[in-house]
Each structure stands twice: as C-alpha cells, then as structure tokens.
Amino acid sequence: MHKLFIFIFLSLCLGACSLGHNDYSDFSNKPSQGWGYNDTISFTTSFADSIATGNLSIAVRHDNSYPFRNLWVEVTINEDSIVTSRDSINIEFADIYGNWHGKGIGSTLQIEKGIAEGITLPDSANIHIRHIMRVDTLQGIEQLGIFFFSDKQQD
Description:
Number of strands: 10
Shape: globular
Strand content: over 45%
Radius of gyration: 18 Å
Helix content: under 10%
Largest sheet: 4 strands, antiparallel
C-alpha cells in the first residue's frame, strides 16, 4: 500500500510539471560572423488550439565578447500577413559596472525579457525579431528564442 501511495504521488507531481498544450518555445542559432542589421529572425507559433492567451518572452544567449550592456530589438507580430503589433524592446545584459545579469554555464549566458502579458495569438502567428542597434553586425549573440506560456493549461 505504501508503494502505491508513493507511485500515485510521484505521478501527480510529474504531471503537474508538464507543459500546457498551448505552450510554445523555439530558438534560432546566429551565425558565427555575427547578427546582421537586416537579418530578421522569424518564428511561427504552433498551438493545439486555434488561439491561445498567455505571456510572451524573448530569450537571448550571448557570450563574453558581446560589446554592449544592452540589446535593442524590434518585435513584430503578424497574423494572416497583417501586422498586429510592433514594439521596440530594450534587453539589459549588464549593470553599469559591466556585471552580466544572465545565467549560464561556461562562457554562454542567457537572459530573458517579457514582451507581452495576456496576449492572444492564433495558431501559426508569425513573430519577427531584428536588432536595432547602431551597428551593422552584432558580435557575441549566439542564439535568440521566444517562449509563450498559455494561461489555460491542459485539462
């Protein structure tokens, strides 16, 4: 009886840790020669339902060669080829003394920034991200990704 209780308890705990059926995440690798000013990174959401409401975040993985303390990006959301949202986001990588805010192992650090809370997106929405820094090519950015965690979890 004791083993059955432990099995049921562990099953419930593991089931509570699973992602919702409308959660989405994806990463894009950046070339070693850098992230060009005109190089737009695009993601297409994929949900189990036709629409989902939740929180959208951006994640950036960089190394110690990144020369700035922040990163300005422009985030555009398209639904059926219509721009529904466009915003400029400032992601602060370091404090004024040069201490990195991100977490990671080795020389790669990851930092995340919320873009929108309570946003409703359709399945197959397109999210485009480009840097709007005052340089042609950014060095030190390894990967860029997005996370969407839906408010309504799987039943």
